[in-house]
Design goal:
Two copies of one chain form a homodimer.
Chain A lengths: L7 E8 L5 H4 L6 H7 L26 H12 L1 E8 L9 H17 L11 E6 L5 H11 L5 E7 L12 H10 L3 E4 L19 H6 L1 H14 L2 H4 L5 E3 L7 H15 L10 H8 E4 L9 H10 L2 H4 E2 L12 H4 L5 H15 L3
Parallel strand pairs in A: 1-2, 2-3, 3-4, 4-5, 5-6, 6-7, 7-8
Helix pairs in contact in A: 4-5, 5-6
């Protein structure tokens, strides 16, 4: 079955409907009509890998059989965790965004996570509109008992960083249902959402580099607002935001916390300690310096073998295999990063 | 004179007037009146180091004699480069901001850089309102021949990242006059300025951590917009934004450039190469992990001995001495980071 000797869980696989009509079918009026006339515009990779296009037509990631053969079977993947690219939150109307979130989840449950998924290889993320936290919490509760939804997905595109109190109902629902919350790039800098950094990026190169800023800003907010004291069982997954920025960020934040903790007394221990207990990171896109030893040195500084979970970001990346996308790692890291960390985090 | 055996240039020293009236005296109407009724509100360190308060009263950094004794003489500083904390750009009225910039520069020229500066130890930064680039260019030309103004200062607080074309007149003026441009935190997330990252930070701990994002966003914009091809003699100084994030950022950006360079054909070489030739970084606040060897390993990855220039950030930090604020560095790094890199960059 597998040409890879490694036992693998892939924590970031993107699928999409064959056409927008598949989502539209799940919408009631007036959303159905609005869905037809609105385009969820967002930055698209100008150079999508052509080898990921299904031979029978349709967008990359829209053909389950092709994805199975190209990714699951070829790599010997035990579980693939689906992230939805709904880019919901940039729309001006939060009711519309919530309706589209429900439609996406219903579509995913009926297709990739439905009868087709008899072997249970696909696991889903409950996509939510975080701009209406109460509606998002209801959406989480609606799907929490489904056997194949294993986490909640929040797009980084937002009006405010996620530590702020309006988001509490979401984390409450996540904790109540024992589901990790994945923070994944999407929808930042467009519509009602704030830019990923000072002002708006002009090019995709700049925008994609900014993904790491998007996830870092939310992570710093979660840490400084004391979210993990308020929700002590909460698990966060930082997906597709890069990895090697973590040591520099936590050195800085631990340092500021030491000097300024009287300002944030609800942060009871060094921010890096909360990260160790509450946050995991997906590997793709891993920064790849010229020298692998530089990367491994930085990974070692961040305790990467405990914090990283393998992801392919299929079909967005030029991903070929774990062996090609990762440097040669210390042998004892492999099983943890490729399999065991995710198995434990998601109870797979 | 000096208790330190090191030859030092301090690239980030903050001074301020004894009272706002000193600046007001340089303003014409209607700005003089508006200056009286407006407060330039901005985040202030909630725990300023008390030992930096002048014994004779006034704000930290307002007493030249005290600063000389506490910083210049005690540390044996050869040149101290002054950064102004005018926090100009958040105001809604760009004419007002430009007027205040001119007033600050005039005040600095008459006081710290005037007769008092007979030994030439103090060097100034021409503060500009980057929201009116033509006015900023005129301000640069006005002071460029002054013997003690050695650079231009742009606050990171902005409506757009600095690579974008509206800022060209500023870099043109910088290049024409052979003056480095320092990008220094200030004014982000307030007034008309965009937040430093997704949404507005709630606490100073979060905000200060965000300084590194502010400078990174501008740096990425400069690099992806091809500013150093357009202005091949331009020199940039990244001040008070931290340091150790650089390897991760450039690994990411070089990687994206390799894959997406067709989108930004004006970027002729890897972004990291432009950094090596056109950008320097001030040391304070240097991230200090638990293990000095981790810091030194990351500094080595970023070629720090060529890119870093010592700064105290007096009087904002708990800075005591270079020996206390930096780890024990390889001996051959010391003279470059503490003195030679800045001497060359500023032709001191």
């Amino acid at each position: 079955m597998s040409s890879s000797p490694l036992k693998l869980i892939d924590c970031d696989v993107h699928v999409c409907p064959r056409s927008a009509d598949e989502i539209k079918a799940y919408l009631e009026q007036p959303w159905k009509h609005r869905f037809s006339i609105r385009k969820n515009t967002y930055y698209k990779n100008p150079n999508p890998p052509v080898d990921k296009m299904p031979p029978g037509g349709g967008a990359a990631g829209s053909d389950p059989d092709f994805l199975r053969s190209q990714l699951i079977d070829r790599m010997g993947i035990y579980r693939a965790i689906i992230m939805t690219q709904a880019h919901l939150t940039a729309d001006h109307d939060p009711d519309y965004s919530s309706a589209v979130a429900t439609a996406y989840n219903s579509w995913l449950a009926d297709t990739w996570l439905g009868e087709y998924n008899a072997d249970g290889v696909f696991k889903g993320s409950i996509v939510i509109n975080h701009r209406d936290p109460a509606a998002a919490a209801r959406e989480i509760d609606r799907w929490a008992d489904h056997p194949h939804f294993v986490q909640i997905q929040m797009d980084t595109g937002a009006m405010a960083p996620f530590g702020q109190r309006q988001y509490h109902p979401i984390f409450e629902a996540a904790e109540r249902n024992g589901l990790p919350v994945a923070i994944h790039p999407g929808g930042e800098s467009i519509g009602v959402n704030k830019p990923v950094w000072i002002g708006y990026p002009a090019h995709y190169t700049e925008y994609y580099t900014g993904f790491s800023f998007a996830v870092q800003s939310h992570l710093v907010s979660l840490l400084t607002e004391g979210i993990f004291e308020r929700f002590p069982k909460l698990k966060i997954v930082i997906a597709e935001g890069g990895v090697t920025w973590l040591p520099a960020l936590l050195w800085r934040l631990d340092q500021e916390w030491k000097g300024l903790r009287s300002e944030v007394p609800w942060v009871m221990k060094a921010p890096s300690e909360y990260v160790r207990d509450h946050v995991r990171f997906t590997t793709q896109p891993l920064e790849r310096p010229e020298k692998d030893e530089d990367l491994i040195a930085v990974l070692d500084m961040m305790d990467a073998h405990n914090l990283l979970m393998f992801s392919s970001d299929y079909p967005e990346s030029d991903f070929v295999s774990p062996e090609a996308s990762l440097p040669r790692l210390p042998a004892e890291w492999d099983s943890k990063m490729l399999f065991e960390n995710a198995r434990q985090w998601y109870s797979l």
